[in-house]
Structures are given as structure tokens and as C-alpha cells.
């Protein structure tokens, strides 16, 4: 038997993404025994077991070969969806190519890089917008056709991740703030003042590490203010004269009118991975895979 239908591929993909044959069957709108039977047919076609086994019991954990088959099926389903779009183009609204940029990095992205990325995209409308970390995660998990600039090294099975570098978390200090020596070249976590602002539109792991470092420095989490908007953060720094823990590049969002400086932390430094997450089958993939991505940002603030 050499025939694996689109429907059967979808059942296989659902089982892996749900991590359960039962939940995968529910997502694919078939019974669990039917899903097990289809997966058995696919294993027979491939010629080897694709899921780990404990004795005679097959678990919904793919083997290395099972993951390879999953990747192949996901790409095949993406091509199939594109083909359906092509043949029904006259009946459907114009396709939208979405590019999502996590909010703290929006002001740093190179307009020239974006314009080159979308040039010759004449058969679809392009939508470029900033979005929160959670909004981007929802778009990726919902298998939306998009490319996203996001921090946290997101490696979901229905997308591909291209690393750009690491952004350092620093203490941003207004020039009129006098409680930190202007001659300092770095700052200890113990010296972060109570009432400081913490920029929060970041991957949850980074926020957890910030609070862990503050706790180790005998700081109480309730003494700090979380802000998820660069404009609000800018107002706290400029008008209230309050320091902020934030990605180093956020100074770009403040503009030249604010007099600010930043200090790296002297120990337990925090670096956030940042990269491009591209859904499988997205047409932007060929424009960035294997290409020079050093020009994504206006200037190099990452390592």
C-alpha cells in the first residue's frame, strides 16, 4: 500500500500535536479506534514504527522517524492548502500575508529590510503590525499563515525558527535620576531601586528569571511595576524619573528627545533569544532561510 490520503496525514498530525491519540482523534473528528487504525496504516506504508512503544502499547510520542514524517506531512498539507487557494482564488477574498513584530522590537526593525522582504508580493495584501508576545503565540499555535519576529526561541512543531541573536536585559536610567552613580559601568541586582518599572511584554521565562534574580537580591516582587507598553514605559522614565528593567533596544522606541543611559547587570545577566518564527508553508520562508538576516534591525543591539 503506497497511498496516504490528505485526511490520513491530518489525523497523524493531530495525534502528534495533541500528544494523545484520543485528543488527536477528537480534533480530527473521528473515533479513537479509527485514528489508531489510520496510524497503523501509515506505519505500514513507511515500513517502520513511528511512535514509541511500552511493551505492546503504542504511546503518542513520536520516534525520530516519526518526527521526520510529521514534518513532511505538515509541509505537504501546506502545499495542499496553497493549491486549494489557487484554484478557488476567484471566489475568495484576496490573501493577506501577515508579518507580526513583537512590540518591544517594532521600533528597531529596519524599514528597508521589510520593504525588500515584501517586494514582488503582488498577489497578496501585506499586513505588518506589532503584537504582544501572547498574540504571536496564539497565531502560531492556531496555525495562522504568518511570519513573526519574537523573543524566547519559540520552537513549535507547526513553525520553523530562525535565530537572530540574543538581546540583553539592562537597567535603563533617566539622566536626572541621582540614586545611581553616573560613573558606574554596571549595576548589581541589589541596587535596583524599589518602585522601578519592569517591561513585561516578553517571553514568560525571561520574566520569571527577572523576579528570581530580584528575590535572590532580597527584593520583593510587590515593590515593582509591570508595564507592557513602550510609550507608558517612556513616560515613567521621562516624566516620573523612574528606572526600568527592559531589553536594551527599547531605548530606540523612546526617541532622541529623552536623555537616558543604560547599565548592564554585574552578575546573573539576562539574554533573551530573538528570532523569526515562520509557519510551515509560508511563502516568506524562501526569502529568509539561508539568507543574511543581519539587516533585520536598524542597528546591531544584540549579540
Tell me which CATH architecture of the largest domain applies here: 3-Layer(aba) Sandwich
Largest sheet: 9 strands, mixed
Q: Which blocks of ≥5 consecutive residues have pLDDT under 50?
A: none
Q: Assign the structural class, choosing from mainly alpha, mainly beta, alpha/beta, alpha+beta, or little secondary structure.
A: alpha/beta
Termini separation: 51 Å
Classify the fold: give the CATH topology of the largest domain. D-Maltodextrin-Binding Protein, domain 2
Tell me roughly what share of residues is in helical segments: 25-40%
Give the number of domains. Answer: 3
Total helices: the number is: 10
- The whole-angstrom Rg is 24 Å
What is the multimeric organization of the chains shown?
single chain
Mean pLDDT: 85
The overall strand count is 11
What characteristic shape results from the CA principal axes? Answer: elongated
The CATH homologous superfamily of the largest domain is termed: Periplasmic binding protein-like II
Strand content: 15-25%
Index terms:
Arc Repressor Mutant, subunit A, 303 residues, 35% helix, alpha/beta, D-Maltodextrin-Binding Protein, domain 2, two-stranded antiparallel ribbon, nine-stranded mixed sheet, 11 strands
Amino acid at each position: 500500500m503506497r497511498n496516504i490520503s490528505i485526511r490520513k496525514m491530518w489525523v497523524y498530525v493531530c495525534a502528534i500535536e495533541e500528544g494523545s491519540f484520543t485528543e488527536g482523534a477528537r480534533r480530527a473528528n473521528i473515533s479513537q479506534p479509527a485514528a489508531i487504525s489510520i496510524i497503523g496504516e501509515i506505519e505500514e506504508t513507511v515500513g517502520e514504527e513511528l511512535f514509541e512503544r511500552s511493551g505492546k502499547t503504542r504511546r503518542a510520542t513520536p520516534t525520530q522517524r516519526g518526527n521526520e514524517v510529521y514534518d513532511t506531512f505538515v509541509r505537504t498539507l501546506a502545499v495542499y492548502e496553497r493549491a486549494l487557494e489557487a484554484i478557488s482564488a476567484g471566489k475568495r477574498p484576496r490573501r493577506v500575508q501577515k508579518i507580526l513584530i513583537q512590540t518591544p522590537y517594532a521600533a528597531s526593525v529596519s524599514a528597508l529590510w521589510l520593504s525588500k522582504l515584501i517586494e514582488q508580493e503582488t498577489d497578496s495584501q501585506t499586513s505588518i503590525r506589532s503584537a504582544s508576545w501572547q498574540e504571536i503565540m496564539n497565531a502560531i499555535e492556531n496555525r495562522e499563515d504568518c511570519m513573526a519576529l519574537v523573543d524566547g526561541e519559540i520552537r513549535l512543531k507547526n513553525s520553523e525558527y530562525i535565530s537572530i541573536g540574543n538581546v540583553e536585559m539592562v537597567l535603563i536610567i533617566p539622566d536626572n535620576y541621582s540614586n545611581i552613580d553616573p560613573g558606574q559601568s554596571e549595576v548589581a541586582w541589589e541596587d535596583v531601586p524599589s518602585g522601578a518599572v519592569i517591561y513585561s511584554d516578553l517571553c514568560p521565562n525571561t520574566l520569571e528569571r527577572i523576579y528570581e534574580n530580584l528575590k535572590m537580591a532580597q527584593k520583593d516582587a510587590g515593590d515593582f511595576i509591570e508595564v507592557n507598553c513602550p510609550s507608558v514605559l517612556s513616560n515613567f522614565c521621562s516624566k516620573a524619573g523612574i528606572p526600568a528593567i527592559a531589553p536594551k533596544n527599547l531605548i530606540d522606541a523612546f526617541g532622541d528627545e529623552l536623555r537616558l543611559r543604560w547599565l548592564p547587570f554585574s552578575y546573573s545577566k539576562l539574554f533573551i533569544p530573538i528570532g523569526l518564527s515562520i509557519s510551515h508553508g509560508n511563502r516568506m520562508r524562501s526569502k529568509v532561510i539561508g539568507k543574511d538576516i543581519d539587516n533585520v534591525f536598524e542597528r546591531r543591539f544584540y549579540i
